[in-house]
Design a protein that fits this description.
By secondary structure, the protein is of the alpha/beta class. The chain has two domains: about 110 residues, Leucine Dehydrogenase, chain A, domain 1 (Rossmann fold), CATH 3.40.50; about 130 residues, Rossmann fold (3-Layer(aba) Sandwich). Helices cover about 30% and strands about 20% of the residues. The protein contains eight helices and twelve strands. A six-stranded mixed beta sheet has the order 2-1-3-5-6-4, sandwiched between helices. β7, α5 and β8 form a beta-alpha-beta unit. It starts with a strand and ends in a 6-residue tail after the last helix. The model has no long low-confidence stretch (mean pLDDT about 95).
Length: about 250
């Protein structure tokens, strides 16, 4: 049996197990299994790997995309530059190899949302591991950005001191935080949505629910919006290629 899975906390919102279970059934891979491993802390990872000897690959989600790095034996160049890992390959020869496939999904999602548009400024909500990949993707496109965080030491602004004019001129706003994820679907990042316009683009990395409160507020203001489904699918398929040895370090 070849085992794969997702580590993080909480995992009630995740579609990863359903996605890969359907994929394995469709491709006739009856000896493959994908499971959710909700770890109480990242310190529980070695115990999981010791217990589940057949694990070949793992995805990593909130809150462990950065915290997992010290447990890995090798990092891809991109994962090292981004400072976050969301895909692990386990081999006898090289141990635990860390990759970032979020960046692959983000490139596709930004292209789908923006088309040929290039906003002059962007605003990223959140400063965790997913935000690290968003920052990298925007830097690739040459789009300057500011960060909004609950922690004043981590962002350019906090949600309590975010100027309205910054929202107004940041034509791309990305929610890289988990706010609004199922089951807390009534929540949205606390920004002044009255300053979102039809010239804005809103990207939410959350894919469950399909239309988050963040996206709904943007849609009500006439903004173009996209949820995290494109990113989710693209990063999942990239993880699959990595686990099958198609991506080398």
């Amino acid at each position: 049996m070849k085992r794969f899975g997702l580590i993080g906390r909480p995992l009630v919102h995740s579609a990863s197990a359903a996605y890969f279970t359907e994929k394995f059934a469709r491709e006739g891979l009856s000896d493959h299994l994908y499971s959710l491993y909700e770890l109480p802390s990242i310190e529980a990872l070695p115990e999981l790997l010791d217990r589940e000897k057949e694990i070949c690959g793992l995805n990593v989600t909130i809150p462990y995309k950065q915290a997992v790095i010290p447990y890995l034996d090798v990092l891809s160049d991109e994962a090292r530059k981004i400072g976050a890992v969301n895909c692990i390959r386990r081999t006898a020869e090289r141990g635990l190899e860390g990759f970032n496939t979020d960046i692959i999904g983000l490139r596709e999602a930004l292209s789908e949302l923006l088309g040929f548009a290039e906003p002059e400024e962007a605003l990223i909500l959140g400063t965790g591991g997913a935000s690290q990949a968003v920052q990298y993707a925007l830097a690739e496109r040459g789009i300057p950005f500011a960060l909004v965080s609950r922690d004043p030491a981590k962002g350019n602004y906090t949600y309590d001191n975010l100027p309205c004019e910054v929202v107004e001129r940041s034509r791309l706003i990305v929610n890289a935080s988990p706010v609004g994820t199922y089951p807390r679907v009534e929540e949205a990042p606390r920004i002044p949505y009255a300053y979102v316009t039809p010239d804005h683009y809103l990207l939410d990395l959350v894919y469950n629910p399909e239309v988050t409160q963040f996206l709904d507020y943007g849609r009500q203001r006439g903004a173009r919006v996209l949820n995290g489904r494109t990113m989710f699918v693209e990063q999942a398929e990239a993880s699959w290629r990595i686990w099958n040895g198609e991506e080398l370090l």
